[in-house]
Design a protein that fits this description.
Order of helices and strands: HEHEHEHEHEEEE
Strand order of the largest sheet: 3-2-1-4-5-8-7-6
Largest sheet: 8 strands, mixed
CATH superfamily: Vaccinia Virus protein VP39
CATH topology: Rossmann fold
Distance between the termini: 36 Å
Radius of gyration: 15 Å
CATH architecture: 3-Layer(aba) Sandwich
Number of domains: 1
Amino acid sequence: MRIIGGEFRSRKLKSLPGSATRPTPDRLRQALFDVLAPVIEGSVFIDAYAGTGAVGIEALSRGAVRAVFLEHSPRAAALIHENLRSLGLESRAVLRRTPAASALRSLPEAAIPGAIVFLDPPYTHPLEYDAALDALAGWSQPRVIAQHDSHALLPDTRGPLRRLRVLTHGSNSLSFYEPA
């Protein structure tokens, strides 16, 4: 796995062996950051259900000032820490080893208008989407992107959040939410 663009373009990231994590495919990451290009510079990016941390690290590479990684798995959290350290990004990142939905309810970053939140829970836990979107409903002007199986049905609205766009690449889709 590698970083696609920005300051750390082409740098390799470590990933966990096996199928315990499902890294976001390069083409899907490229599509995500093509959409986010006008707003990523200077943003706070939250990578929930971070896995390897590739999406949050890509955001830092492309100009986000800070990234928050939420990952419950001890092995995945250790890997994220190792990937951040290998690129010298520890000072621009916060890593929380905690369930993502509960962390989203308590993060002080919730007060930052315009935070970008990327949700990518395991496809085998569809209720995590509802829990995370509910937690984000009280945030101040978040931009929320949920990666999901293309056949999954995510809500068009959740509290003040409204889905504005869906991008599909093969079996994966990205749903983009903003406050109505």
